[in-house]
Amino acid sequence: MIMPIRTDWTLDETVMPGDMNDIGKELNRLKEEDKKLENKKLDKTGGTVTGTINATNLQVGGANVYTTSRKPTSSDVGASPLGHSHDDRYFTEAEMNEKLKTKVSVESGKGLSTNDYTTAEKNKLSGIAAGANAYTHPSSHPATMITEDSTHRFVTDVEKSNWNGKAPKDVATTSVNGLMAAADKVKLNGIANNANNYVHPDNSNTRHVTDSEKNKWNSKADGNHNHFKCGIIDNKDLNDYDGEGLVGLTNNNCTNQPTGGYFYIFNIKYNNSSNNLKQIAYGYNQGQMYTRYRTSGTWSGWTRMYSSTDKPTPADIGALGATAKAESAKTADAVAWANVTGKPSSFTPSSHTHTKSQITDMPTALKNPTAVKVQLNGGTTEGTNQFTYDGSAAKTINVTPANIGALPSGGTAANALKLNGAVESASGTGNTIARRDSNGDLSARLMRSSYANQSSIGGALAFRENNGSDNFIRFCSDAQAILNWLGTNKAKYEMLGTATKFDIAMPNTSANFMRCTFSCGNKQEMSSIYVNVNGKYVTDWTVGGSFSMVVEFMKIGASSYVMSMNVHCAMRNSDMSYRLTTSTNKLDYASKQKITFEHSQAGYKLENCAYTLEWY
To answer: CA angle, 206 as apex, 201 and 209 as ends, to 5°?
Structure first.
């Protein structure tokens, strides 16, 4: 029995379980009808076709064959006649599927809510995040719970006030103040580009020269020459050479030279006197050195000075050679007795003594056959200032400073200012006892030493400033300072390393001429390098890469110098030109304390730098 199916449902009507069963049964019936139609189709897989084939009645295997001219009737296919009518409660399969799309399936154990679930509520639920709550954000927060970062910072009232008080960024004009005062703008407009504070020299500092004068000056020696004298001394008497410094080089034929050979001769004067000087002969090609001195015009003999490369032979110092044998020895701890040759077969005892404990049967007391008499200050009263002792009995003699006329320990002498008739003195007076003055200083005319001459100098050299108010003896161990004072070294070299700025102190601030050569292995970034003297800017040059600057100072007055500078560089600009540059400046300085080379860009370095100094 086919149950009728309702057709009056609405989209929001609830489908009950009973309705679903009816719908399922109808669907199953329709499937069975479809199977029946499928079975009536022609079998195209094979078999025998029997029957009569005609235009109006075709059968295969007893079954009708339908064509376009012979169509099946409604009874052939089990369908309703074409002209029949249906109750409007019946639906086709397609209509039924469309209706079912708007319904929900029933799940076991679950029922549908009696409350309607509207589209508005569905949209509202879709707009709510998972885990959401009914949190209400406060309208304000305390500042302490805010975390600052590089783009979000708090500003205090003081900072806001300071910023509000800043000058405006308006561009200044000649009538209105801005980033500068209007008066400064007027002054700036009146200054030409690249202007400087140049003052043209007056006639007192400007002179013309003639061609004759120029030719005469051009024939002079260069400014960087020196007067280091080292001529050949040929067949001369070295006693006649009393000039100070390097005298010359002997030609192996001079009188009074220390020995045969070639020697550099150095003279060092004492107190600027030619009658008192030290003469040093240093070997040209044999490494030997000799020294002698002249006092009051009289020369001493030569003394050879040994060194680590010129060592004395055993014969020079009266010693035995490495393989020589000693003629005698006081001890021979390392030689076995059997190995000693030339020893006598017997030994006669020599004169010797024994202590009392080594003598047997020694009496406890011995009387001296000749009594010993002790007199105090020549006294003759026995027991008072004279005591006689013969050894027969113990005797105590109490000797005090008073009973012998001596000064007690810590006592004061009757005449402490004299010793053997000599009077004390705090000055360098002869035949007096030396006494320190109130400052603890000790004065003397000359200190004499009997200590042997040494082959090397260590420690420090003694010197004094003058023989007047500052004649104190001091000591100096700075080799550079000693060489500067002797006048044998007026140059200095130092490696500086890498930095943005280098200050180079002048060792002789009042020299008449000074040359500083500053070299840089690499100057980072093409920009200027500043040259300052005594902390003040003088000039600058744009260079890059490696460069060398030669700065010379020539004294032209009591408080003025001419500064000349030559710049040799890898590049001056992008086209690698202008590698040699020169400049000249006049400086009004009483002295030169220091020269500074500084990179104009603080973030960049002058790499692998060094300098030399020369002065006269």
So the answer is: 160
